């Protein structure tokens, strides 16, 4: 069984695993989403800027806001520091189609999935999809670890401080106060 919550407490219970709430979610028009971006291979700032430009050309996706870039310590095995940031977009597509679009964009920029939390040319994580809570086998919204990650919360708080994370009920600017931000450093040139 799948429970999906949306704006104003709307809910749908899907009894068929293959439904994935598509009827409920596809009825939403022009929803606001948050995406985290990261890179630690190649010219990371150029890759991230190009990925944002690429996503901005996708039909039914409109860029609303871009955070500054931040240098952050990598999570996982020893590897170079990351450049991280976040974007807010307005989209007219279901979370599943959006996920497929993000994964295809990662591949266009040379993303190879070899080890969990390994180095990568481009990482795109869907953080928030309006106020939807979704848990299906290949996608969880909100992103299940976003509340623990300063490298996500710091740039997100810069561009969406009052967005309420629907699981905790807290605003992003409140969540960022609960994480150690000492390894997140603003880059001077964007």
Write a structural description.
This is 2-amino-4-hydroxy-6-hydroxymethyldihydropteridine diphosphokinase. It comes from Nostoc spongiaeforme FACHB-130. It is a single chain. The chain contains five helices and ten strands. By secondary structure, it is an alpha+beta fold. A hairpin with a 5-residue loop joins strand 1 and strand 2 (11-14). The model is unreliable at 5-9, 11-21 and 23-27 (pLDDT under 50).
State the gist of this model.
With 190 residues, the protein is α+β, with helices and mostly antiparallel strands.
Q: Hey, roughly how much beta strand do the residues contain?
A: 25-35%
What structural class is derived from the secondary structure elements?
Answer: alpha+beta
Number of strands: 10
Number of helices: 5
Spatial shape: globular
Largest sheet: 6 strands, antiparallel
Low-confidence stretches: 5-9, 11-21, 23-27
Percent range of helical residues: 10-25%
Order of SSEs, N→C? Answer: EEHEHEEEHEEEHHE
State the end-to-end distance. 44 Å
Average pLDDT confidence is 85
Q: Which radius of gyration do the C-alpha atoms yield?
A: 16 Å
């Amino acid at each position: 069984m799948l429970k999906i919550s949306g704006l104003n407490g709307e809910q749908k219970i899907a009894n068929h695993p293959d439904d994935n709430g598509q009827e409920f979610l596809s009825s939403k028009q022009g929803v606001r989403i948050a995406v985290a971006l990261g890179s630690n291979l190649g010219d990371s700032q150029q890759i991230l800027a190009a990925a944002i430009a690429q996503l901005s050309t996708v039909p039914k996706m409109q860029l609303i806001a871009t955070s500054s870039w931040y240098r952050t310590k990598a999570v996982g095995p020893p590897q170079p520091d990351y450049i991280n940031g976040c974007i807010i977009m307005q989209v007219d597509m279901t979370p599943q189609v959006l996920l497929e679009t993000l994964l295809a964009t990662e591949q266009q920029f040379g993303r190879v999935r070899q080890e969990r939390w390994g180095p990568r040319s481009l990482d795109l994580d869907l953080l928030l999809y309006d106020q939807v809570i979704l848990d299906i086998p290949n996608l969880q919204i909100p992103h299940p670890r976003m509340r623990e990650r300063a490298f996500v919360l710091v740039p997100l708080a810069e561009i969406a401080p009052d967005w309420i994370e629907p699981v905790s009920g807290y605003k992003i600017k409140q969540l960022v106060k609960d994480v150690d931000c000492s390894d997140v450093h603003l880059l001077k040139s964007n």
